[in-house]
Amino acid sequence: MKRRTLLKGSLGAGLAGIAAGAGLLSPQAVFAKWNKKAFTSKKVDDAVKKLLGSSSMANSGAIKITAPPIAENGAEVGITVQSSLPKVDSMSILVEKNGQPLAANFSMASNTNAFIRTRIKIGKTSNVHAVVRSDGKLFTAKREVKVTIGGCGG
């Protein structure tokens, strides 16, 4: 082993140990905070209300959801959501027929591009909803995804 590699590894491990000892690497510090009430809601409107404070949403053509029309395996479905709305500070993905519809929520600075790409589980053929908070108002769009093999135990 080279001396430089050993020193880099020792320094990194030492700093990680100090941070863990000081409580800086606790699970609460490492993982983002989550809204348990929203993520455990059973209906789309309830999840949106618990997450964003209101379930009053307007349909918008400025939100584009890209997803496969047919997902052969619902356990891992690639989804892209983008919006041309101004001042977007939150984007959420909900799956209507999942037992717990809220699949993901993303907070962002209002001056960033409103674009997310992720993978979600879809239990059975369902509408996927994107909810975007723009300038304090909620907007939505939906797209149906047909599932041949369920992703939530089906």
Spell out the blueprint of helices and strands.
Layout: H1 3-21, H2 27-30, H3 36-39, H4 44-52, E1 57-59, E2 63-66, E3 70-71, E4 77-83, E5 88-95, E6 102-107, E7 114-120, E8 126-134, E9 137-147
Parallel strand pairs: 1-9, 3-9
Antiparallel strand pairs: 2-4, 4-7, 5-6, 5-8, 8-9
Architecture (CATH level 2) name of the largest domain: Sandwich
CATH C-level name of the largest domain: Mainly Beta
Tell me the overall shape: globular
Name the structural class.
Answer: alpha+beta
Mean pLDDT: 84
The name of the CATH topology of the largest domain is Immunoglobulin-like
Give the tally of structural domains.
2
Total number of strands? 9
SSE order, one letter for each helix or strand: HHHHEEEEEEEEE
Could you tell me how far the N terminus lies from the C terminus, measured between alpha carbons in angstroms? 50 Å
- Radius of gyration, rounded? 20 Å
Share of residues in helices: 10-25%
According to CATH, the homologous superfamily of the largest domain is SoxY domain
Percent of residues in beta strands? 35-45%
How many helices does DSSP assign? 4
Task: Let me know the largest β-sheet.
Answer: 6 strands, mixed
Give the low-pLDDT segments. none
